[in-house]
Amino acid sequence: MIDTLEAHAKKHDVKVYRYRRSDIAGVFSLFGDASKHGISKTLASWYPDLQRFLAPPRNFKISEHYHMGIFDGFALMYTHAHLTGLVKNDYEN
């Protein structure tokens, strides 16, 4: 599905970016914890409206909370903006 969307975008001259989990972790390691929970806490500190969606840390017995997709989207957005130079490290410790 992703490859099909990418091919369609390229056919219409739309620039496509791909990021790995390691890219996102690398960007967020600049701000502390690069785990999914750490990233969600960092994002919630930057965007207080997200705090109500924070889930408690999970272990292998607990499935991922459905709100984590919100943080995945914000993390991807910030990673793209950071790696393409659209934002500076305004939030960096």
3D structure, described in words:
This protein has helices at residues 2-11, 21-28, 36-46, 68-83. It is mainly alpha-helical. The protein is globular. The protein starts with a helix and ends in a 10-residue tail after the last helix.
Largest sheet: none
Mean pLDDT across the residues is 89
Low-confidence stretches: none
Instruction: Bin the strand percentage.
Output: under 5%
Q: Return the structural class.
A: mainly alpha
- Bulk shape: globular
Question: How many β-strands, per DSSP?
Answer: 0
Termini separation (Å)?
A: 38 Å
Assembly type: single chain
Radius of gyration: 15 Å
| Helix-strand topology string | HHHH
Number of helices: 4
Overall helicity: 40-55%
List keywords for this structure.
0% strand, 93 residues, single chain, mainly alpha, 4 helices, globular
Q: Can you give me a brief rundown of this structure?
A:
The protein is mainly α.
Describe the secondary structure blueprint for this structure.
Elements lengths: L1 H10 L9 H8 L7 H11 L21 H16 L10
Helix pairs in contact: 2-4, 3-4
